[in-house]
Amino acid sequence: MNTSFPKELADVRRALVVVAHPDDETLFFGGLLTTALRGKADVLCVTDGNWLGAGAERKTHLQRACELLGVTNLETWSYRDSLTDHLPVDELTERFTALGQTGTYDAFFTHCPHGEYGHPNHMDVSFSLHAALKTIAPVYCHADRLYPDFSIKMDKDAYQLRMRILWEIYFEELKDSWRQLPFLVSEGYLALGWQDVEGIYRLCSNKVIPSLVSGSAYHALLPFLIAQWASPDGLRRGRRSPRRQTP
Known about the structure:
Layout: E1 15-19, H1 24-27, H2 30-34, E2 41-47, H3 55-69, E3 74-79, H4 89-101, E4 107-110, H5 120-132, E5 139-142, E6 150-153, H6 156-168, H7 171-174, E7 186-190, H8 194-206, H9 222-229
Parallel strand pairs: 1-2, 1-4, 2-3, 4-5
Antiparallel strand pairs: 5-7, 6-7
Helix pairs in contact: 4-5, 5-8, 8-9
């Protein structure tokens, strides 16, 4: 596995990391923001983070975290944060398309289509961004349980900075689930084909089992996702873990 930043992104002028909630930028992209893209990436948070009524406080947390991560340009939208309901993907796709057409960014990073631990807002953001930018700009998703195209390995200082942010800023909302979250030294990312993105999103949101092409990045993970999202009894077991206090 390539543990250096890929050559095709070496000349990126500006990248955008698109997340669903405050703390996602640190949990899934903290290493990327503090190493390979430090000073070259902006962050967009799509929801209001108000699942349990702490939206204003979480927005402040996000601002503090981004400052420490070296992010100087943070944008927040105000879609309703929900652990049970999906976001308006058609509207998001339109907004992401307009954003991509500005030419401001050479590359985009976001959640994986299965939403990491199964969060519907993560799925929606990933699906919408991929749909919007299919022919506009490269999109790299967090390689949760997937084999990455490349990985970013943090040095000791970067890793300790990420852990400091998670402890000093986000611990209250992570205190019930931090043991299950990926506090890894390396973060992996990959570019998915549209068939993978659409198929996995439909599976996780509508229980439609996809027919993936040979060599799909989801080949190994697909049986697990089918068992989780399209089991005969209809149980969405993935919602059980890990559940953060505020998504």
